[in-house]
Amino acid sequence: MTHPSDILPAESSVSFPKQMKYLSVLLGVFLMAEGVRGFVSPSGRGAYLAFPYFLVGAVCMYIFGYDRRLFLDREGVVRETAIWGRVLRDVTPWSSIVGISMTPAKGKVLAFFRKGTTGWRMRFSSEEELRSFLEDVAPDVPME
After folding, report:
1. Is residue 28 pLDDT above 90, yes or no?
2. How far out from the chain centre does Cα 33 lie?
3. For the chain, how big is the Rg over CA atoms in Å?
4. 92 neighbors 85 (Cβ within 8 angstroms)
5. Which helix or strand (DSSP H or E) is residue 114 part of?
């Protein structure tokens, strides 16, 4: 059976909600502006008190630009991390996967892709869909 798509996204790759991202960028801009105000104020506090505002504001801005996706494709198990438009892609090829264990969990299926002593743990919505995809792209990998 051929899967209709070349990728099967995992439900484990849920990113931050959009409201949280927008709130974090607003908070980050506010904190960085407070840091600038504290740095240029004539009170003499300067960089000593401005640094924590810059640091927390930068972390809030980082949250806005961060996104992570986990999925399966014809190449193997893929983890994509996007940080402000720069995408880092880590692919574990099917030839490196020594076995796949599947366990039902709350109406979903939890799959563990073993790669030696380590591996990837991902949650999928349907075991039948996962099995059909794996039979199509990685028929030689043993499934439990």
Report:
1. yes
2. 29
3. 22
4. no
5. strand 108-115
